[in-house]
Design goal:
disordered C terminus; mainly alpha; 77% helix; single chain
């Protein structure tokens, strides 16, 4: 227990360092973009490859991909239903902000540090379904609600999802795993070394983008969104834990995936303001 608490505290400390260094000027306001590029193009893909090194998958695990996809669909529909008596912009706001799981930059570093490579494999399967929605699927649904859905948005979605290095890595390792292809151990050794800094960089980046400047009405809106997200995340976790026929090890990972969610408040508010103005970003 002591080791777990120390690890958890170290994550919080790294976030605090990132935020403090930004506040005192060590990091510039846009420096987080460099860290993000390193994470998304180097350390995160390497962490995903390493997680599949000894991962054994059977066909029942394909259901995990569906869980990641359905979690987003269900939350988007809930967001639409909760705003059913409001205008389309409010519906779109709810759909965009209630759906989505921040796997790559928050949950996966946590799982990587606390639960090991096998849990990274389970997380990766979940994020395949999640990524389909987060990289454009939810946007397409919300665009349809506000009357902006078109063929161009579908092409943009396909272009965006397949230009994502983490998603391409997911698909590559998924194919490697289900076909039984054995990559040379040297590859896993290299990716293991390159992925060692993924958790640190992810927590540092979170600290660098974190902001505490909100108006009262914004805080109320954010608190409402977070409360709804965690209410239904708790329901999903209970269903997974008691009714889904997976091993307890897999259930533990899935429960964490639904519950350990980090909502970038300032991004949500910026997105919401833009939606209220009549367009999506």
């Amino acid at each position: 227990m002591g080791d777990i608490l120390i690890k958890a505290f170290s994550f919080i400390l790294i976030i605090a360092i990132g935020y403090s260094f930004k506040r005192i000027g060590v990091f510039g306001p846009k420096d987080y973009k460099i860290i993000t590029k390193i994470i998304m193009n180097i350390t995160l893909p390497c962490a995903l490859i390493t997680g599949f090194a000894n991962f054994k998958m059977d066909t029942s695990m394909l259901f995990i991909i569906l869980l990641g996809f359905l979690g987003n669909i269900i939350m988007s529909l809930i967001g639409f239903a909760l705003a059913r008596n409001k205008d389309n912009k409010e519906k779109a706001f709810n759909m965009l902000n209630l759906a989505g799981y921040n796997i790559g930059c928050f949950t996966l570093p946590y799982v990587q540090s606390f639960m090991g490579p096998y849990a990274v494999g389970i997380t990766s399967l979940f994020d395949i379904g999640n990524s389909i929605m987060c990289t454009g699927g939810t946007y397409a649904l919300a665009s349809g609600v506000v009357g902006e859905g078109n063929d161009q948005s579908i092409r943009a979605f396909l272009r965006k999802i397949f230009s994502s290095v983490p998603f391409d890595t997911y698909m590559l390792m998924f194919i490697v795993t289900i076909t039984g292809i054995k990559l040379p151990q040297m590859i896993y050794t290299i990716t293991s070394n390159l992925s060692a800094g993924n958790a640190f960089l992810s927590m540092l980046m979170i600290g660098m983008v974190f902001e505490c400047k909100f108006r009262k009405e914004q805080l109320i809106k954010v608190a409402s969104i977070i409360s709804i997200r965690y209410l239904f995340a708790s329901i999903f976790a209970v269903v997974i834990y008691f009714f889904v026929p997976f091993s307890m090890e897999i259930k533990h990972v899935l429960v964490i995936l639904y519950l350990v969610r980090f909502l970038f408040l300032h991004q949500s508010l910026r997105l919401g303001v833009n939606v209220m103005k009549g367009y999506l970003v």
